[in-house]
Amino acid sequence: MSAAASCLLTEDQCLCSICLDVFTDPVAIPCGHNFCKTCITIHWDKHVTYQCPNCKEVFDSRPQLRVNTFISEVATHSSEQQVSKPGEVPCEICTGTKLKALKSCLVCLESYCETHLQPHLTKSGLKRHQLIDPVEDLEDRMCPKHDKLLELFCKTDQTCVCMLCTVLDHQTHKVVPLKEEYEGKKAELGETEAEIQQMIQKRRLKIEEIKHSVELSKEDADRETAEGVQVFTALKESVERSQAELIDTIKEKQRKIEKQAEGFIKELQQEISVLKKRRTEVEQLSQSEDHLHLLQSCTSLNAVPPTKDWTGVSVRPPSYEGTVVRAVSQLEETLSKQMKKLLAEAELKRVQQSAVDLTLDLDTAHPALILSDDGKQVSCGDVRKKLPNNPERFDCCPGVLAKQSFSSGRFYYEVQVKGKTDWDLGVVRESINRKGKITVTPQNGYWTICLRNENEYVACVDPSVRLSLKSPPQKVGVFVDYEEGLVSFYDVDAAALISSFTGCCFTEKLYPFFSPCPNYAGKNSAPLIISPVNHTE
Description:
By secondary structure, the chain is α+β, with helices and mostly antiparallel strands.
């Protein structure tokens, strides 16, 4: 069925008068009226009389229902059109159920569904009307002053105008067709949208950056908290040990006094027992009436039994004066040493978080150096190999650089120096001189320390500074904070700071630098070894 044919029926003619909806399986009864097959069947099932619900004509017997193919096709076509939903522009011609409008006419100022739009597509007079995508409030598109279509734009006043406005009110203004201004504004909106989208993206990235910063901060906070608890627990245990030692010292002094007193008392009690016994014997003898017996016994009982002279004997309480002061002073010294040790361990733990994996760069190695296959060890041999004298290679100083470079942030690595009598370690800037004799100082781009003659540790500055170490380090840690301008060296096993360069100004890439120094006939043949970082427990 053609779309034009569907226009021959009004919307009401496509509706069943019983269910008031678009026909479903439309059938005709003898009087000519049409109903949904189900609707008329149920209607007659409920009533004894077979009567038309519209014209009230009564039939003697139940009429035979026949499908109305014309109505069925029209109803099917109507049902295929979408019913207007909230927020969509409805057809202004539809009565009852409003179908979704497909176009709006700027001349008729009405919106039409597919069925009611057909005249604008077929009739010559209506075909000249301007159709647009459906919009509401078409009256707003008319000039309120001249009741004409707003189809022009005044760039001078930045307002929409009609043709009469350009003649009467805007004759000297710059006026362009609405579509032209629309295209320009649309392009501007596109640019604005792109700019806004870019701003949104930047802010989303900033959110992620902030979240990442919070995560890093939490990790740092948790780590610092754990280290703080460990440090203060150790200090608390030291205080408790010192307190227990103080109490034990005082108790021990008291025990010695009590033991001494117990010995004196026991001895005195023994003498008292002897004296009591003699007193009883003397008392009995003095009461005797036997003259001979008294005279014979008097000689032996008349003398006092020998006893100790207790005149100079006394128990003197020990002096506790200064005990607490000495204990606290000793505790303070112990805590000071322990705090320095714990803080050094905590500092080493902190820098170890920035550990990086390094490998030695063969293209920079002095011809006499021997590198391991994995690029982790370097020693100095006796033979100078024939190698290309490329600009990156050291030709006089027995040095080699790492392949990795750093131009921001922090990094840390550890090098085993066990068994060596001479070595140099540190970092250098990319532009250092690698040819001929080199003076390794910060002014020349070298931030290094070295060992000379087995026990002479030196910070390589001008003039050089000798370092005082309690014991020779077996493994040296190197830490760099690029932005802070800091290079620090640690004795890893002792968790002690060896030396630091501070206030450095880094503007180039930094490379880790290694020099095993000459082997001196095998005396210094042990290699420098880049070691994996085992975080301090």
